Amino acid sequence: MGPQQRPSGTATIKPPPPVNPEKSKIENNLEITALEELGEGVFTNTRELYKPVGAKGIYGGCVIAQTLAVAQKTIPAGMKVHSMHCYFILPGSATVPMVYHVENVRSGRSYATRSVHAKQKGKAIFTATCSFTRPVSEVTDEPKRTVQHSIKFPKDVPSPEECPTEAQTIDKWLGEGRIDANVAEFLKKREANDPFEFRKAGIVGDTPETDPTRKLQRQWVRARGDISDEESHLPALAYFSDTWFIGTVNRVNPQARRGQVGMMLSLDHTIYFHNAPKARVDRWLLVESDSPWAADERALVTQRIWDPEVGLLATCYQEGLVRLKDGREGESENHVISKL
């Protein structure tokens, strides 16, 4: 017997269960369901995929995170992801179920590789390759000699408590006349629905004469509520890693300010995970992002994610389309979007 069918136009294949109040918002958002009726390694979204208020399609971080979550379901116990390489292929719809197909490329003693295709209506909209490793134990009978080095947590970063909340920032913009009441209400509604809270920590080198490649954007991020499932931390990190990542270009290059960009979307996304066993996303993490290159209607952005107590948790890269207004953007008012 196949999976229970729902009317066309619904966002899930099976009726979603009630939201679990004992789980964080991000855990509920990323919950997945195995479709054993369709074979091994087939999964689907349990709940409707998150579509930001005002966005044309689903948030790309949803698919990145669920792709990692389903891949994790197929690997031997004790292994942790160390890298994932993703490509956005087609826009994703919030009203169509997502079906994830996991291919076991290789399962070795130290490393395992999984390829995942995310499909809607039979078409791949997203693909990723995830590589997992068995971490070298820090305490063993015969400690291994390993090469070790890492950049240090940056100095002179204001604490989360010293940084304004998103709501405070929106009120400030409203008071300064940078936005009107309708935009403020829209932004506050979007912020309230986000499973993460963000606090801007400034832009290093934010002066007109500073080269865009020398500017560094910083912000703090934390999941709303405690994450109860240990296996949810890394997918949750993957989820927020896509939040305004390519939007770094807007913040460091005056040529790409709002009102001048006709279209901005993500093309690919790579995450290298460090200290994976120690990652906890329900405490404040510092996110640094910059853009070393932009040309040919594309831009490259890089990101480092820090836990002040642990050190560097992840290094991310993303390339995106950045097209200035030139008549090709069509009639829609909102083209600063993720491809998903």
From TrEMBL:
A biological process from GO = fatty acid catabolic process
Q: Which Gene3D superfamilies match?
A: Acyl-CoA thioesterase, double hotdog domain
Q: Which residues form the Acyl-CoA thioesterase-like C-terminal domain?
A: 160-322
Has UniProt tagged this entry with the keyword Cell division? no
Keyword terms of this UniProt record: Hydrolase, Isomerase
Q: What is this protein called?
A: Thioesterase/thiol ester dehydrase-isomerase
- The UniProt regions of compositional bias labelled Polar residues, in chain numbering, are 1-11
Q: Where is this region: Disordered?
A: 1-24
Q: Where would one find coiled-coil regions in this protein?
A: none
- What's the family? Belongs to the C/M/P thioester hydrolase family.
List each copy of the Acyl-CoA thioesterase-like N-terminal HotDog domain by range. 55-133
CC annotations in GO? peroxisomal matrix
Query: Mind listing the GO molecular function terms for this protein?
Result: fatty acyl-CoA hydrolase activity; isomerase activity
InterPro entries assigned: ACOT8-like_C, Acyl-CoA_hotdog, Acyl_CoA_thio, HotDog_dom_sf, TesB_ACOT8-like_N
